[in-house]
Amino acid sequence: MDSALIPEGAKRCPLPKFSIGIAIVSAVLLWGVYAMFLCWFKGLNQTNMNDYYGFALWIWADLAVIAVGGGAFFTGLLKYIFKIDELKNIINFAVIIGFICYSSALLILAIDIGQPLRGWFIFWHANVHSMLTEVAFCLSAYFAVLTIEFIPNILENRQANKVPFFHHLAHNMHGVMAIFAATGAFLSFFHQGSLGGVAGVMYGRPFAVREGLLVWPWTFFLFTWSAAAYGPCFTLLVTKTTEAITGKKLVKDNVIHLLAKISGWMIVTYIIAKIIDTAYWAMVTAPSLGFNLSHFYTDNSFYGYWMLITEIVICGVVPGAILITKSTRENPKLRLVAIILGTIGVCLNRWVMVLQIMAVPVMSFDTWALYIPSWQEIATTVLPVAYGVILIAFAYRYLPVFPQEQELNQVKPVTE
Amino acid sequence: MVQENHNSAYKFGMVIDLDKCTGCGSCMVSCMAENNVPFKEDETNKKDSITWMRVYKLTNDKPFPDTEVVYMPRPCQQCGGKGDHGHSPCVSVCPAVATDYGYDTGIVSQIYTRCFGCRYCMGACPYHARYFNWWDPKWPEGMEKYLSPNVSPRMRGVVEKCSFCYHRYQAARDKAYAHGNKDHIKEEDYQTACTTACPAGAIVFGDLNNPAHEVHQIVKPDPHPDPRNKHVAGKSRNPKIFRLLERLGTNPKVYYLSEREWVRKQGDNYLEGEWEKIKNHHGKASHG
Amino acid sequence: MFPFSFEWVWDMGHMVFFGGFWYAIGILSAGMTYCIVKAVLNTMNDSGESH
Amino acid sequence: MKVDRRSFLGLGIGAVAGIAVSPMGMKLTDDSAIWTQNWPWTPVPVDGKVNYEKSVCSLCPGSCGISVRKIDNRPVKIEGLADHPVNDGGACLHGIAGLQYLYDPARIKTPLKKNGANFEKISWNDAIELVAEKLSNMREKGSPEKLACITDKEQGSVSGLFKRLLKTFGSPEFYTMPSLESYLEITASALHGKGKTIAFDLENASFVLSFGAGIIEGWGSPVSCFKANASRKTRHAQLYQIEPRLSNTAANADRWIPVKPGSEADLALGISSVILKNNLFDSNATSNFKGDLNKLAAVLQKDYSLAKTAKITGVKPDDIKKIATLFAKAEMPVAVFGKGRGDGAQSLKELAAVHTLNCLVGNINKKGGAFVKPNNQYLEFPDVAMDSIAKTGFGKNKTGKYVNQFFEEVNRSSQSLIEALFIYNANPCYTLHDTKKIKKALDKIPFIVSFSSFLDETAMEADVILPSHTFMERFEDVPSSGGLVKTVVGLTRPVIRPLFNTKTPGDSLILIAKALKGNIAKSFPWTTYDKCLESLTSRIWNSLSEDGFAVLSNGMPGDSQPVDVSFLAKNPASLKAQGNYDLTLIPIDNMRLMSAATASSPFAVKTVSDSVLKGKDIVVEINPLTAKGLKNRGFAVLTTPMGKTRVKVNINEGMMPGVIGMVTGLGHTFDNKYVSNKGVNINDLIGQVIEPDSGLDAAFGIKASISKA
User: Fold this and answer.
1) What is the pLDDT of residue B285?
2) Among residues 1-51 of chain C, which lie with CB inside 8 Å of chain A?
């Protein structure tokens, strides 16, 4: 029925099957949308946040999707600036994932703020000293970049491409994509960093605060670096998932191996920096403020040392090691383990840098604050996932996302 | 970007005598009544109960019968930030300049109509002095008639906090203008609602920069930075006086006074053995 | 955001921050304008050729 | 023109782009933000001219001067009145929250009449007529003594008018609720003779030995006590606090001496014993003792030796000796009684034993000591007209000596002892022990008239409610009370026009009296209460109306006072807590919760710690040694002989082992969701224990057990 829209030569599942799948995911989406409207109309009392947890699940989700969405800017940087041409075979998908992540982040922010209709004050009345201001500016600008990067792919749709203007526009945009990608990398560097800076500058919070370079605390650089390192893991993970769902190989192994290798080396270098940062913070920064490391990890079973070890060793050192070693990297199972661990690792890092900061008491007579999100918070956090699935499904079905798809899935000529 | 802080300006501050404080709650209620703070059916979840002035209960954790208890009222600490340059933990992070540092008063303001409720300031404040309006403020039928026009009630979705009763400062300033002495607000003309309400007289409020003011005389703030921590300024030279979390370099303008050593120790965090080493140096007039 | 909003100060912070921001926005809009204008021209050329 | 897909698309894109760059988007964005800044459901207080009015707070017996800030005619804030002789600018949280009572959701807005289980609105005329008719019938039947009345206090013109109405009607059944003031008078009466009261010079005392008196928990005149306590530090005066729990007063004291609940009297007698044995007493003072001192000394030597006292009280013998010595040798010692706020159950043995300490060390009517002074007399009532019915009725014996006994007798009697009851400013169904029993007694009284401003637990039991103005809407004289050194009368003034169809209680009484006609009407010759007040206080009216208060006496009474210790010399037994359980439940008076006739305000309840009230659950305090098996902040079932209740547990080192502490002032059941249906009323769990020698309810607590829920 919709075959006119499907990329030429590509094989897609029948429309009814596709529709059923979409309907199921849409139900989840609607649940999230319902919760979103509850939050908008009734206010944030719908959440389990409180005055100790001004930042909670949503801010974590924001940071996490932006971190894993970092695959877009980093792949773009590698492809357009460092001219690693193989990556053209995955760049479209990286951009779509990035687009989903960043639009989700903006949506969550619009729910998370107490006065969504005044959200634009962050631009209009900007305080340039606030990390959050930098986040807002660079995030929105970078979202514009992602949109620009996504547009040519949309215009390459079989029907759209028939329109000469769209055809030319897509072509022209490809031509100057390097400039957009460079701008995107510049913006990403700052907003990823600023998101790290959000925590690092809170000098009232010894668990968060870091020393740094000029106005930028070390978390600024660690966040950028980790997004660049782990973002590609997520890109690979989503690619792998898409391949599993569609039952097709979509990207050639050499491309996957290359991205995995780059990601691996990024993770290794990041994790070394992270270990140094953690050690310096634990041995110098926190003690100078009167805190032992044990203060942050021994009160309750949730925020224990296990979290630190999981984040740095299990989800940092291990995937790094797997991905930089040729034999393990090229073993599909181990690679899958590594990219899953890597994705978990960066999400856990963002969790720690948002929620554990809020949980740790600072005044000696204050107590730990633990928090369990409300269903409205969970639903609105699941919403972007559902939205992402739907967008990927549509993109995959109707856009030439994977240049190698046809080559890899040629129907063998039937020998007569 | 070091700004000239408090030169020929006021620096309003407070000292609270914890030995006099009885934990009676007058300051809390006076604050709520003065500043149109709402209330809701259940206020027992103290993590979402708006109390600009909150009274903490501190204990020495000793077993019966050696247990001791002290109450600690905690308004907004009106931090001067590192080096007392006005970059308070909350002010420096607010993305929309909805909270600002008054270099002429030392008071951290909050503009409710500007705030869009991102709550970054709440995360940045280690004192939990900032409160979010999770609910629309609602009063039982007719009760909104007691609301004071001096402070606007806050709408849902914005952050609020103690302002050192800034409207009282404005009134005092207007009075000083009217008397043709615009640069000199009298000590008794500007007192916060908690100060005047305290039945034990435990709170003393005034201009920390003015040697004639009682608060200055009690606190005796050291004009020089702390030699042990360059971020700390205005440390009290009275060894019985401390500030909350002074080591973080937030430079609060709320000082606490206690004769009890364990109380002073709880004002900050110390590694093992650290307190024993520094308690004797604590607040000493090293130079000046 | 703009020099006419009242919290604007002509200091290093504002100039660096907004300098960077407007620079990025400038590149993006210039790039997009270039692509669109060129696409319009291309389209017009196309129709010229075909007729 | 043919609109094909391409031009349609172009048109659409063009339109979107057009709207995006047009000012409409910006205008909408801006307008929506402005709308959020002016949400119509967020109130905007009306501005106006600021003015201040002086008045007196009568929420508690403290009688503090207040300054009410108004915007035009609208009161917006209550603050302490500077230079007022009682509180000099300070104010307690309840007074500051006073305006919340004005707009309390539980306020009664118009006269009500019980119809079945519900109330219906009636007019003032009908209400007064109804009351007058019932009362007339009683007189016609010749039983005027079956009209009883309960108010909050003896003093003041409103109580005076109630008493007057009863007298001219022909009934002696006038009762007041227990209060610190009533205990002070009872104690003074037992030791020094009738018509006197006691005050404590806390401002000057150099050594305060407090037997559980919550000096900073609302005892006496709270703000005045706060001030005296705060000055202790600069005066280098000391406070020793004796009670089972680390109360705020104990925490603020120089020393906390935990004592087994209910053994305070024994400790006081033990200390007296040491003082007498070691010749630490003041020999001049003992000359004022009229007989029986030797007898008392003998009793003390025999039954209150150090070892015995230590065993009873749990205080170490050395400590008892040390306290006795410190107290006797202090320059200006004073021993203070009245556990908690001093308005709960007390035994005369304890009151007398503690006050005997003052008498022994000779600090009566000396600076920094205890003042024994005559009761306030500033009202000049004209004579009461009484007919023969009134005279016969008034001459009959009262049903009970005190209000507790009154209810007990009403319950016990098979006949209808009381046919009509007036209740004003009292909430016995909430504040007296064993509230079920109190309600049962009220059920036996066929006609109850409440003068309450709020539909509280007792007003709910009434047949007719003649609602009163709150203290912010009326004139009233407010005599200081509760152990205050100065004798001050304050004037409560209306700071706002009455919000509802209510009346000053005095006016309601005048209307009832006029409706009853004859001598009764003659005894109430005033047209209004305000005129009545002016004439009753004519001696001090100028000062009252100009300054808002009149100081009747400032200094200490100069005379020496006779001391009669015959009550103690009879060696009355100490009362035991009721029941057979292992633990003892005791009430905790918390400054932030009112537990008398007036309930707490929403603001006050908001300030209550979550270790006292969590959600709708009351939290009880218990020592870790006693809390075996219980989880901190977990649920438990508390059982007393009176019943069971679910509580939360606060495991707390500040509580003596073997004791469970429960806050007073929670568990209200009236219609104010901010205050009511939170926790339980401890008075539901404690039964009364009448002290045989005095008739007082002396239940300091009750035996209890606690187990995991």
Assistant:
1) 47
2) 1, 5, 7, 13-14, 17-18, 20-21, 24-25, 27-28, 31-32, 34-36, 38-40, 42-43, 46-47
